[in-house]
Amino acid sequence: MILDKFKLDGRVALVTGASSGLGQAMAVALAEAGADVACHGRAADAVEETCGLIEGIGRRTVAAEGEISDKDVPSRVIDNVVAEFGRIDILINNAGTIRRAPAVEYSEDEWSTVLEVNLSSVFRLSQAAGRRMIMQGSGKIVNIASLLSFQGGITVPAYTASKAGVAGLTKALANEWAKFNVNVNAIAPGYMSTKNTAPLRADETRNRQILERIPAGRWGESDDLAGAVVFLSSTASDYMQGHVLVVDGGWMAR
Length: 254
Description:
The protein is an alpha/beta fold. The protein contains 8 helices and 7 strands, in the order βαβαβαβαβαβαααβ. Helix 4 (108-136) links the parallel strand 4 (90-93) and strand 5 (139-144). Helix 4 packs parallel to helix 5. The chain is globular and about 50 Å long. The N and C termini lie far apart (36 Å).
């Protein structure tokens, strides 16, 4: 039955940046599809709510804490998930940050912070999880890209560079790991109603300009990614490799 291909029973997932917003919604969606889910946050108490929601669904969960930009944290997080659950089948690289400033004023510290969180940690987590997945002969990695993987944006040079890098890294890893039955794909969310976009929504002119371009006529909500993340984490997407799936209310089609 086709719906059986979307079930994640017996799978173990890790979602980074799972304390709220997109990360929390995706973690809950994976649990609703049958997966046990490790929820990453900077501190264990940051993902307490998300873990509680997953437990309420009847799935196992654990908090995976650590500053994701620290070079030693990604491999430790993966090791801890495997120690807790015995394996890792799904990795959702969602943790991210943004700094806004004109390019001529953008500081080295801001640039480094954004690149480390949004791109370097994605590589390190994927590398650590990929080694495990290659050994077990299966795995799903879903990176969270952005519309700015395709466009330049305004006053977000580091974010744009990092998300373009995520799209490229997704394809590079897919090229190497497809033969091991490890799928690497990405989701590019459109303009979503999250903490990161609060300044845009608070700007009356910018908010109006954004809504005028979105054919759906609204900002995306966290739950709008639920179907996409379950699909890319399931056997229903086994022949998809290196794809960046846009979920944007029609923005890119405009």
